[in-house]
Write a structure and sequence with these properties.
single chain; alpha+beta; seven-stranded antiparallel beta sheet; 7 strands; disordered N terminus
Length: 291
């Protein structure tokens, strides 16, 4: 070990204020030399960090922050602002882009005769949107008018039709919900005790199938039924026992219900004598054929 190096260690130790460290005598170079000898750092004590290692306490270096990073960040922000301003200036100097015209060119109408309208056989609405009374079954020969016919001239308003049913107030609301459109009726009498009523009720059917729903929701308790030929679910019913009340003649009832498209059909027969199934079935079949 060379003496000059020991001197350098002593000088550095004095500069680092080693007098305050425990176990070190100020001005005693031998202690420093011993520490250097034990640690094997004789040629490495050349800065303050080495002196800290000698005395067993590391010295943390404080790294100075340069101004280069700050200058780069500032330049980036300024460049972004400058680019945005330049873009606005360029756009402001340009001519406004013209919008397309709202008016469109007129398309010339095709010349020549158009297609022929569909016949009633091909388009059923040609028949059902016309005079609905023409679709009613014809009255048999010898038939007489009833005393108090419903409606006016064969047409039934919503109120007129509801009055023909039991619980007219409730039926009125149900018909509104079913989208009632219009109804027609024909009535006649053949004898002194019977009466027949045939009705066609048309529905708008914009939100539900009113005709099908109304045709299938009738009270037929106490009656036996048979399917109507040519219909999907049409039925004809005849009461097995008459309705009897004190002071009145017994009343037999027959009814038929079916639908086609937006039209519901219903037939009612009342008589004081039993009604044959053939009679109500014949009327129902002939009426559905006209639809």
């Amino acid at each position: 070990m060379e003496v000059p190096e020991v001197a350098e260690v002593a000088e550095v130790a004095e500069a680092a204020d080693v007098s305050e460290r425990p176990g070190v005598v100020p001005g005693d170079g031998s202690g420093a030399v011993g520490a250097v000898g034990d640690a094997g750092l004789a040629g490495a004590v050349d800065d303050v960090g080495a002196v800290g290692a000698v005395f067993g306490e590391p010295v943390t270096r404080v790294r100075r922050r340069g101004r280069a990073a700050l200058l780069i960040a500032t330049a980036a922000v300024l460049g972004l602002v400058a680019g945005t301003c330049a873009g606005y200036l360029v756009q402001a100097d340009r001519e406004p882009t013209k919008l397309p015209s709202l008016s469109q060119p007129v398309i010339a109408q095709a010349k020549g005769a158009g297609p022929e309208p569909l016949s009633a056989a091909q388009d059923r609405r040609v028949k059902t949107d016309g005079d609905l009374r023409k679709l009613l079954i014809k009255r048999p020969k010898g038939a007489r008018d009833v005393d108090y016919p419903a409606g006016q001239d064969g047409w039934l308003s919503l109120g007129d039709y509801a009055d023909q049913l039991k619980n007219a107030d409730q039926e009125f609301g149900d018909l509104v919900s079913a989208e009632f459109r219009r109804a027609v009726s024909t009535e006649w009498r053949m004898g002194n005790t019977d009466s027949v009523a045939v009705r066609l009720v048309q529905y708008r059917q914009e939100e539900n199938l009113g005709a099908a729903e109304r045709a299938g929701n009738w009270n037929v308790d106490g009656a036996s039924g048979r399917p109507i030929p040519g219909t999907s679910d049409g039925m004809a019913y005849v009461t097995d026992k008459p309705d009897t009340k004190p002071g009145y003649l017994p009343l037999y009832t027959a009814q038929a219900h079916a639908w086609r498209g937006d039209i519901a059909m219903e037939i009612w027969i009342y008589d004081t004598k039993p009604i044959s199934k053939a009679k109500i079935m014949d009327l129902a079949k002939r009426q559905m054929e006209r639809l």
